[in-house]
Write a structure and sequence with these properties.
The protein contains two helices and 14 strands, in the order H-E-E-E-E-E-E-E-E-E-E-E-E-E-E-H. With 257 residues, the protein is an alpha+beta fold. A hairpin with a 5-residue loop joins strand 6 and strand 7 (135-137).
């Protein structure tokens, strides 16, 4: 027997489904934002795979000394996922970026954030270096608009969160892993990063840096040469999922025709 809904009832039924979905979406949000985990990596791997990074400088330009940048974004991880620092109240999103190099460890890291972000949207900054010995590193953080006058060779003006003076073994041929982490009130979206080693002109950034950032919902991996950063304004993350919910509802409604 085929399930058939009379044409005159299809719109009310569809709207009812949307209303129920919205109630579940925002009802759940009042109790908990829900749990999300996103991971991704950018590397330079031609000729087999398309590059997602641009690198320049005396050492990083040979595509061997700068290995990759990876990231993890957790929502309310609780005790189930390991984080470098404890979760402060009101900060639902944990961001962690790991830069791996064979030589000339990064000294500056710039991460694009949403234009409406303020210093109150970030907490518990931590920078760690594997050389020597996985130590915490004193670093300076600043939020604002940066240009190539404030960060040498920055491809274009960017509103972002800057980590500078990240220490470690600055100018030698020693491999190093730099881990940068913090908590934020901002949900993830697609944005840009830039890093340099403070010597030799070595610098790297995502290949889509000067292109418009995608507006698609957060997901694993990179998208159009961008990585996940604290981009969306308040409500944007919920809006993306609401849009997806409406689309799913529309497709299911068509199944009854």
């Amino acid at each position: 027997m085929t399930n058939t809904i009379p044409t005159r009832h299809r719109l009310p039924v569809f709207l009812g489904r949307i209303s129920m979905g919205v109630a579940l979406l925002f009802g759940g949000a009042m109790l908990s934002y829900g749990e999300f985990v996103f991971i991704g990596t950018m590397s330079y791997t031609p000729p087999d795979d398309p590059a997602t990074l641009t690198m320049q400088g005396s050492q990083w330009n040979n595509q061997s000394d700068f290995i990759d940048i990876s990231w993890s974004v957790y929502q309310n991880p609780g005790n189930e996922l390991l984080t470098a620092t404890s979760q402060p109240s009101g900060y639902d999103w944990y961001y962690e970026y790991v830069i791996t190099v064979e030589a000339f460890t990064p000294q500056t890291f710039l991460l694009e954030v949403g234009q409406g972000a303020t210093t109150d949207d970030f907490a518990n900054f931590l920078v760690q270096k594997s050389n020597p010995g996985n130590n915490d590193v004193n670093t300076n953080t600043a939020l604002g608009t940066f240009t190539d006058a404030t960060i040498s060779n920055l491809p274009q003006a960017t509103y972002g969160l800057q980590f500078s003076g990240m220490g470690g073994s600055v100018r030698n041929n020693t491999a190093d892993v730099t881990t940068i982490s913090f908590w934020s009130t901002k949900a993830p979206g697609w944005g840009d990063f830039f890093t340099n080693c403070g010597g030799g002109g070595n610098r790297a950034w995502n290949i889509g840096f000067t292109d418009p950032s995608p507006t698609a919902a957060a997901a694993d991996g990179s998208l159009s040469g961008h990585l996940l950063t604290p981009i969306p304004e308040p409500g944007a993350f919920s809006f993306l999922f609401l849009s997806a919910l409406i689309i799913v509802g529309a497709r299911r409604n068509l199944q009854y025709t």
